[in-house]
Every structure is written in structure tokens, then in C-alpha cells.
Write a structure and sequence with these properties.
CATH topology of one domain: Leucine-rich repeat, LRR (right-handed beta-alpha superhelix)
Subcellular location: Cell membrane
CATH superfamily of one domain: Ribonuclease Inhibitor
Membrane topology: Single-pass type I membrane protein
Distance between the termini: 120 Å
CATH class of one domain: Alpha Beta
Organism: Triticum turgidum subsp. durum
Bound molecules: 2-acetamido-2-deoxy-beta-D-glucopyranose
CATH architecture of one domain: Alpha-Beta Horseshoe
Number of helices: 4
Strand content: 15-25%
Family: Belongs to the RLP family.
Mean pLDDT: 91
Helix content: 10-25%
Number of strands: 37
Main location: membrane
Length: about 500
């Protein structure tokens, strides 16, 4: 009969052997991570900041290596890699796929080349992938969306090609997809905006996407949508108006056509709407002029018809930019614009607006005012006098209208911040006042194609920043201006 002690002793030995084996096996899992990190390092050809110096085969404590963070639980496993702006050159190794517990990988703004390894799709715990700002090429890995913890994908500013993998579309945890400034092409997957309660940011700006904007169905968190500078065509889907979480709809510089859906006006949290540089037609739906929250509103350079509603200044009181230029708008410029006290940029140029211009002197923040290429008249020029109180004005263009009468002295009392002044192609008579030199910061002065008489006043020689001046004159004294590069007649 073995004694009680012997039994206990045997049990104790058995137990300790078991834990030793267990520890060995777990330590071995850590070793997988250590080997994967060393393998990643072998793909990096240079790191001039010495960031990978601590990464060595002699060092077992990989959790202390620069850029590596481990989880707190035993055994230690790599939880995050952080190397943004680290000047790493080289390629991403597929070994990274062995870092089973990797949750965050931030290698943004380096000099990485080659492709994104397909193995990254095998990381079951990957939450954040940031590889923006390198020279990565090839396709986005087909497997990428397989992880159901993937939330943040930031691959902007590389040279990626191919399309958006369907796995990303099906990834229900995805909240942020930033693929801007690559050369991705093909259609945006038709189900990208289908049934997602997490998707909040989609930025596909400056790629080569073609085809239609997919419909929106049960996307409840989408705030920021930017599809600017692609080759998207067809209509804007009316279902976009059902996405009440939207704060930015940026669809400019595409080939969109048809009517602007009236439903866009139902997105009551919208701050920015950019539909410029498309082929949209019909009139701007009245609901859009009713979005009180809006700060940036651009539908410029389309084929839009109709009038600007007279109440616009009351229904869009928070606008800082209103860009309706290069359309086919008619009617008067509403006097209520004077109520948009935050307005900085107003561009109504290149339309068929007529009548006189309203007083906008209340717009203390106005910086750029472009009413050129319309059918506007001057009447008593009180409009210009009112602009004397816009103390931030840098650009004023009234060119290509039907302004007549003699040029009022008010022009020289405009803010000295003014850099760009054009009154060209009107029927303005009189002469340019000598006090034009009050406008000390003028870089461009355009007065050609009017009925003005006399020479350019010699005081213009004081305008040291002037580099464009156009006026019918024989006074070449202005040629001595230090920066003048263009003299147009
Ligand atoms: C431990 O890891 C090495 C490779 O790092 C492997 O060759 C070995 O089979 C592993 N042993 C166990 C018990 O998992
Ligand atoms: C970037 O990487 C390429 C090769 O991958 C190399 O030729 C180039 O010198 C690197 N540039 C910098 C600034 O490190
Ligand atoms: C690590 O990844 C490489 C490349 O994907 C693979 O060949 C290797 O088997 C992996 N090693 C371990 C220990 O899983
Ligand atoms: C894109 O990345 C390159 C290389 O890192 C950098 O020089 C450039 O400033 C980046 N551009 C933008 C818009 O982020
Ligand atoms: C982008 O890809 C398209 C084809 O998909 C190609 O025609 C174009 O030249 C590429 N642009 C750049 C800048 O690489
Ligand atoms: C929507 O997504 C949820 C979770 O991802 C899924 O369970 C459900 O079946 C989907 N519904 C439809 C209509 O696709
Ligand atoms: C908007 O959502 C409602 C309710 O879910 C639905 O009945 C309607 O068809 C949707 N509108 C569009 C244009 O998709
Ligand atoms: C504008 O908003 C007001 C008040 O919210 C509402 O009564 C009116 O129907 C809206 N008009 C349009 C054209 O959407
Ligand atoms: C004026 O608008 C038309 C479209 O309505 C456009 O084709 C043309 O380029 C615009 N001109 C300028 C100078 O912007
Ligand atoms: C300016 O034009 C208007 C009509 O456009 C005309 O009634 C007025 O007489 C003109 N004034 C001068 C000074 O030519
Ligand atoms: C003229 O421009 C300069 C440089 O942009 C600026 O610092 C200065 O404040 C401007 N002067 C006026 C009167 O706006």
C-alpha cells in the first residue's frame, strides 16, 4: 500500500508535468507570433529611423519590441502593430497572417510596395487595417472582409487596382471604408449600401469606378458618403433620402444625369451636399432649399433650370458656401441672401439671372462673390456700395453682365483684402479712379471690353502683387510692375 504521502507526491508530479507541457505549448504559440514578426521584418528593406533595431532573433521578449503591443492575457500574443510615418520601405509579408490575435494594424504613410497579402483576410480578430499612403498595388484581397470583427479599413492614397471585394460588402461589422485616391475600377457592389447598421463612412473619392450608385436599403448609420471624382453614371437613387443619418453627400465630378431626387431634402442632418460637375437636369427640388442644417451646398456645373426661390436666405440660414454657377438658372437674385450671415462663398455665375443685384453688405464673412456671366444690370450701383462693408472680400467678379453707367468711386472703397476684381465685358463708362491703388492686395484686375476712357492711372504702379491686368490701353508704364506676367488687351 503506498502511503498517503507517496500518492500525493505522484499527483503533484503529474500535475506539474501537465502544467509544464501546457506552458510549453502556450509559449510555443507566442513563438509563432515572434517568428511572424521576424518574418515581417525580413520583408522590410529599409527603416532609416532604426525602428526595427530592437526586433532581433536573440530577443525573446517581442512584446517589448518597438511598434508591438501585446494583449494582457497569458500567453502573450501580438494585439497591435503601430508604424505610421515610420519610413519603412519594402513589402508586406504574408506571415502577418499568423498573428492570430492581431486586432489593430497601422502602417499608414510609409513607403511600402508590392501587394496586400491575401493572408490578412485570415486574421480572425482584425478590427483596424490602416495601410494608407504607400505605393501598394494590385487588388484588395478577396478574403479581407472574412473577419467578423473588421471595422475600419483605410487603404487611401495607394495605387490599388481592381474592384471592391464582395467580402467587404458582406462584412456586417464594417464601419469605415476609405479607399480614396487609388485607381480602383469596376462597379460599386450593388449590395454595399444594403442592410448595414454599422457602416458610417464610405470614401471612394478619386478612383475609376463606373456604373450606377447602388440603392440604399437599411443603412442606418451612414454619415459620410464621398464618391467624388469617379465615372459614375445614371440617376442618383431616390432611396438615398431614406438614410436619415447622412451628414455629407459628396457626388461631384461624375457623369450622373437625370433629376436630383426630391428625397435628398429629407435628410435633415445634412451639412454638406456636393452634386457639382455632373449632367443633372430639371430644376433643383424645393426640398433642397429647405435643409436648415446645410452649410455647404453645391450643384454648380450641371444643366439645372428654374429660379432661385425668394425665401432661400431664410430657409438656409447656416450656409457658408452656395454654389449654383454654370447652370441655366433664370429669374432674379433673391434679396433674402442678405440673411445668410455665415456666407463666405457665393457663386451664381454663368447662368441667365437678370435684374439688379441685391445689397449684400450684411454678409460680414463674404470672401468670394461671383455673379459673372449673367444678364444683371447696375441701376444705381448701390449694390457695389453695400459691398464696402464686406471686410473679408478677396474675389469679386461681375464680368459679362449688362452693367452700365460710369464706374462708381465705391469700387476703390472695397476691402483692401480684395485680390481678384473683374468688371470686364459690361457697358461701363467713365475712367478708372486713381484711388484704385487703395486695393493694395490686387493680383488680378480685369476691366477690358467696356466703354471706359483714359489710361490706367499711374498709381497702379503701387500695386506690387498685381500680375494680371487687362484693359484697353496704350499706357505701357504698367509693364514695370514687379510681378506683372500678363497684359491682356
Ligand atoms: C513549436 O514551434 C515550432 C516552430 O516555431 C514547431 O516546429 C514545433 O512543432 C512546435 N511545437 C509544438 C509542441 O507545438
Ligand atoms: C521607397 O522604396 C523604393 C523601393 O521599394 C526605393 O527604391 C526608394 O528608395 C524608397 N524611398 C524612400 C524615400 O525610402
Ligand atoms: C506563417 O506564415 C507563413 C506564410 O503564410 C506560413 O508558411 C507558415 O507556415 C506560418 N507559420 C506558422 C507557424 O503558422
Ligand atoms: C499620399 O502619399 C504620399 C506618399 O506617402 C504622400 O507624399 C502624399 O502627401 C499623400 N497624399 C495625400 C493626399 O494624402
Ligand atoms: C486607372 O485604371 C484605368 C483602367 O482601369 C486605366 O485606363 C488608367 O490609365 C489608370 N490610371 C492611372 C493613373 O493609373
Ligand atoms: C441583414 O443583416 C443581418 C445581420 O447581418 C442578417 O441577419 C439578416 O438576414 C440580413 N437581412 C437581409 C434582408 O439581408
Ligand atoms: C424609404 O423607406 C420606406 C420605409 O422603409 C420605404 O417604404 C420606401 O420605399 C423607401 N423609399 C425609397 C425611395 O427607397
Ligand atoms: C419646408 O419645410 C417646412 C417646415 O419644415 C415644411 O412645412 C415644407 O413643406 C417644406 N417644403 C418643402 C418643399 O419641402
Ligand atoms: C458656363 O456653363 C456652361 C454649362 O451651362 C459650361 O459648359 C461652360 O463651360 C461654363 N463656362 C464657364 C466659363 O464656366
Ligand atoms: C443702363 O441700362 C438701362 C437698361 O438696361 C437703361 O434704362 C439706362 O438708361 C442705361 N443707363 C445708362 C447710363 O446708359
Ligand atoms: C494682403 O495680403 C497679405 C498676404 O496674403 C496679408 O498678409 C495682408 O494681411 C493682406 N492685406 C490686407 C490689407 O488684407
Amino acid at each position: 500500500m503506498p502511503s498517503m504521502f507517496t500518492l500525493l507526491y505522484i499527483l503533484l508530479i503529474l500535475f506539474s508535468v501537465r502544467t509544464t507541457i501546457l506552458e510549453a505549448a502556450q509559449a510555443n504559440k507566442s513563438e509563432i507570433d515572434r517568428q511572424a514578426l521576424l518574418c515581417f521584418k525580413s520583408g522590410i528593406s529599409s527603416y532609416p529611423l532604426g525602428i526595427l533595431d530592437s526586433w532581433s532573433d536573440d530577443s525573446l521578449n517581442f512584446c517589448g519590441w518597438k511598434g508591438v503591443t501585446c494583449r494582457t492575457k497569458f500567453p502573450p500574443r501580438v494585439a497591435s502593430l503601430n508604424f505610421n510615418y515610420a519610413r519603412l520601405s519594402g513589402k508586406l509579408s504574408g506571415c502577418l497572417g499568423n498573428l492570430t490575435f492581431l486586432s489593430r494594424m497601422n502602417l499608414a504613410y510609409n513607403n511600402l510596395s508590392g501587394t496586400i497579402p491575401e493572408e490578412l483576410g485570415m486574421l480572425p480578430n482584425l478590427h483596424t487595417l490602416n495601410l494608407a499612403g504607400s505605393y501598394l498595388q494590385g487588388n484588395i484581397p478577396i478574403s479581407l472582409g472574412a473577419s467578423n470583427s473588421l471595422s475600419y479599413v483605410y487603404l487611401a492614397n495607394n495605387t490599388l487596382t481592381g474592384g471592391i471585394p464582395l467580402s467587404l460588402t458582406d462584412c456586417s461589422s464594417l464601419s469605415t471604408l476609405i479607399l480614396s485616391r487609388n485607381n480602383l475600377s469596376g462597379k460599386i457592389p450593388s449590395t454595399l449600401f444594403d442592410n448595414s447598421s454599422k457602416l458610417a463612412v464610405v470614401d471612394l473619392q478619386k478612383n475609376s469606378f463606373t456604373g450606377l450608385i447602388p440603392r440604399f436599403h437599411k443603412v442606418t448609420a451612414l454619415k459620410f458618403l464621398c464618391l467624388t471624382e469617379n465615372f459614375l453614371s445614371g440617376n442618383i437613387p431616390p432611396s438615398i433620402g431614406n438614410v436619415s443619418s447622412l451628414t455629407s453627400i459628396l457626388l461631384g465630378q461624375n457623369k450622373l444625369s437625370g433629376l436630383i431626387p426630391e428625397t435628398i431634402g429629407h435628410t435633415t442632418k445634412l451639412l454638406e451636399l456636393d452634386l457639382s460637375f455632373n449632367s443633372l437636369s430639371g430644376s433643383v427640388p424645393l426640398s433642397l432649399y429647405n435643409m436648415t442644417s446645410l452649410k455647404y451646398f453645391s450643384v454648380g456645373t450641371n444643366a439645372l433650370l428654374g429660379q432661385i426661390p425668394s425665401h432661400i436666405g431664410y430657409s438656409l440660414p447656416n450656409l457658408h458656401s452656395l454654389i449654383l454657377g454654370s447652370n441655366k438658372l433664370e429669374g432674379l437674385i433673391p434679396a433674402s441672401l442678405a440673411n445668410m450671415l455665415n456666407l463666405q462663398i457665393l457663386d451664381l455665375s454663368n447662368n441667365s439671372l437678370h435684374g439688379s443685384m441685391p445689397s449684400l453688405g450684411s454678409l460680414a464673412n463674404l470672401r468670394q462673390l461671383d455673379l459673372g456671366r449673367n444678364l444683371l444690370e447696375a441701376h444705381d450701383w448701390s449694390f457695389l456700395t453695400s459691398l464696402e462693408s464686406c471686410s473679408q472680400l478677396t474675389k469679386l467678379s461681375l464680368e459679362g453682365n449688362a452693367l452700365n453707367g460710369s464706374l462708381p468711386i465705391a469700387v476703390v472703397n472695397l476691402s483692401p483684402t480684395l485680390e481678384d476684381l473683374s468688371l470686364a465685358s459690361n457697358q461701363i463708362s467713365g475712367s478708372i479712379p486713381v484711388e484704385i491703388s487703395n486695393l493694395v492686395n490686387l493680383t488680378s484686375l480685369r476691366m477690358e471690353s467696356n466703354f471706359l476712357s483714359g489710361n490706367i492711372p499711374s498709381t497702379i504702379g503701387k500695386l506690387q502683387y498685381l500680375y494680371i491686368i487687362s484693359y484697353q490701353t496704350t499706357n505701357y508704364q504698367v509693364l514695370s510692375l514687379p510681378r506683372l506676367v500678363t497684359l491682356l488687351n
